[in-house]
Design a protein that fits this description.
Blueprint lengths: L2 H16 L31 E7 L2 H12 L9 E5 L4 E7 L7 H13 L6
Parallel strand pairs: 1-3
Antiparallel strand pairs: 2-3
């Protein structure tokens, strides 16, 4: 058995027998979403949030905006979100589905509106 797998089982056994936990955080069992990211920790929790969606019409527009916001890392961005703390509102920039349909990306970005920056960038 792989060392990391053994450590996970030991930790899970400890948590299940030593505490009153009924749910195990996804980060402990390396659960990764279909978007390839793992939920690590809530930054905040907004269960009622105002959301604006900005559909991006093509790759050129996405790369232009993402490059201005994220610099060189903008080349890897599929969608992104801005949280406005003052207004308690969220703006999601996502590919227009008539260009490229990626419904998992909007769910991922909405999760940022609800729980903040929960994964490493």
């Amino acid at each position: 058995m792989h060392y990391n797998t053994q450590m996970k089982y030991i930790l899970l056994t400890f948590l299940l027998t030593g505490c009153g936990h009924t749910a195990i955080p996804a980060a402990l069992i390396d659960e990764v979403g279909i978007d390839g990211y793992r939920f690590l920790q809530k930054q905040f929790e907004n269960l009622q949030v105002s959301v604006k969606v900005v559909p991006l019409q093509d790759e050129k527009t996405l790369r232009s905006i993402a490059g201005k916001v994220f610099g060189p890392n903008g080349k890897r961005i599929r969608a992104f979100t801005f949280w406005n703390e003052k207004e308690k509102s969220c703006t999601i920039y996502i590919k227009d589905p008539s260009w490229r349909y990626e419904p998992e990306a909007i769910g991922h970005e909405l999760a940022h509106c609800v729980w903040g920056s929960f994964h490493k960038q």
